[in-house]
Amino acid sequence: MSVDISATETLDVKGENCPMPVVKTKQAIDDLAVDDVLEVVATDSGSMSDIAGWADTTNGVELLDQVEGDDVYTHYVRKTE
């Protein structure tokens, strides 16, 4: 994907392992306004599938993009309701 996405907030969960990236992403999304975008930066490779799965099964959020870098995984999640 890798489109130019402007994030409203950035959540740094580097060094955190499952399930904490998802738990902290949910907490951060709850504090945002509708249409805000949360950028989540993680080092846990499992966050790619974990955050995607969470977004697919959670009302009110949309996974916009995921970028896999060198040991860093960046996720963009938009609050939709």
Automatic annotation (TrEMBL):
Gene3D superfamilies: TusA-like domain. InterPro entries: TusA-like, TusA-like_sf. CDD domains: SirA_YedF_YeeD. Signal peptide: none annotated. Residues 9-79 form the UPF0033 domain. Belongs to the sulfur carrier protein TusA family. This is Sulfurtransferase TusA family protein. The lineage of its organism: Archaea, Methanobacteriati, Methanobacteriota, Stenosarchaea group, Halobacteria.
